[in-house]
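Thread: quick sanity check before group meeting

JM: Hey all, I'm pulling together slides for Thursday and realized we never actually wrote out the predicted structure for the chain we discussed last week. Dropping the sequence here so it's in one place. If anyone has concerns about the input, flag it before I start.
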Amino acid sequence: MKRIINIVILLLTAMVVQAASFTVEAPRQVIEGNKFNVTFVLSNGEGSSFSPPQVTGAQLIYGPSVSHSYSSSWVNGKSSSSSSEEYTMIYKATSTGKCHIGAASIVVGGKRMSTKAFTIDVVASGSQSHHPSHQQTTPGAPTPYSDPMTQSADKAVSGKDLFVRIEMSKPRVYEQQAVVCTIKLYTKYQISQFIPTLQPSFDGFLIEEIPVQPSLNKVETLNGERYMTAILKQCILYPQQSGKLTISSGNYDVSVVQFDTFRSIFGTISKPVEKDLKVTSNKATINILPLPEPKPASFTGAVGRFNVTTDLKPATGLKTYSAATYRYIISGTGNIKYIKAPEVQFPDQFDVYDPKTDAQVNDGSGDMSGKVVMDYTFIPQYAGEFDIPASEFSYFDPETGKYETITVPARHLSVAKGEGQPSNHYRMKNMDIRPIKSGDLGLKKSHGYIVDHWTYWLWFLLPLVALVALLLYYRKQLKERADVRRMRSKRASKVAQRRLKAARGFASRNDRSGFYAEMLNALWGYMSDKLSIPVSELSKDNINAELEQYGIDQPTRDQAMALIDKCEFAQYAPELASDDMSSVLDEAAGVIDRLESVKRKKSIEQS
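JM (edit): ok, ran it. Output follows.
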């Protein structure tokens, strides 16, 4: 287990080292006597044991100061993040000529990484007009960028010293025309931490993000002042509607590095102090022009500059029931990734499937370029000579403000007889929609009021009649349930049948004692319920008298009494009983059926 853990740690360490990079940023030329920054940037890694370079021709003023930055984003369901560590050294050029900066090194994941040595040209002060100088500033003067001597901790950081700016590459574009949005940080201070808390929203746009590595690696001049800059986010936007579209502002938590400067016997010493700030970017508005009308019938939303070619695979030797591919290739620059597949008219004798699209594009600095391959798979169902007719592909060129149309040439196809049979997809497609019936359909035009028809009032009478019938049925049920004797009489046959079924179970197990006991329960219980005789008054004489009063004939009464006697004898002397239990069951069922039949005949005569 320890060996496996060590292998996993080594693999993870190797991945970290492979993903990390250690680079240096410095000016190519400085003026004698001026201060300049040399920044060593570790991207996507955590470093330790930083070793500064050996420098000749310059004096170290301050450093290294360490800053950390981290950013993450979530666009179109994809997340991305990046981090960097920056080690900044401030030097002063002491003499003209060459200033040699040696290699710096740092340990990342147990492995030491180094930068390359380089040389800076130090020119005479006569070139000062072309380069900024860092001199002592007066109160109220702008803060020089990256100068610890003027960035004291008691000085407020103004909106001109540090801000985030949303920049659009064009002030006005057409719908679906690409515009590059850049979110950039401008600062005169070193940054130790940068965290986006609310990213700008891009409502009304499709977004293609351009991968960037946020790092304070450039110096730019804006409104006459110099800033260190870092691109935080850059993406290509494709507007989906006309009018004014606004990109909302973002919120960021930033920690800047200022300095407490004090004098000692060793000279002036600066101590870095971090200050936490909340920064809000600007909003950016862009005017979106609608695409001109009328649009060509073959226009499917392509905006840019494109070319179209087609291909057929296999080019020859087409056979019935064998799949082939008609390839439609659109190449160029623009919103190529979002072009809809054009409609190709195939012969009716072909089984055609939905096109499969493969986009092979690159995100350039201002737009997407590459190609989109659309494969139309088809299967000929009949042999013969066929044509895919010529078609057109139209796109809008924003540079000229006009629609351009490309004619796609026709293709002739020779299909030979092959082995197989028509596909289910082809048969179902031809059975899906039947031809529209034309001619005289026998339609009549009439006017009338629905209240004049008797069916209209019938819909009111039917619920009323149903309600009355339901009430009468409910009253009848209540009346019958109140007559306990009648209810017992009606349920007598059902109860007897359940008991006979239980007796049949004893018979199947050859349990004579249990069988005859259950038969007696069935017969006595049936007579009690049917004739409304209380259990305490049940006797053969009472049962015989009630059956005679009910109108049961003498043979049926004798058979019922004999069946009861037979079951009583068999219950108390089962070893002497020789009757077959199945015949006893059949006899009991026959007696109960005849008694039920007599009752029904009597009820009919009374009615």
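AS: nice. The helical segments are 2-19, 424-432, 454-482, 484-508, 512-531, 540-550, 554-572, 581-606. Residues 226 and 297 are 53 Å apart (CA to CA).
JM: adding both to the slides.
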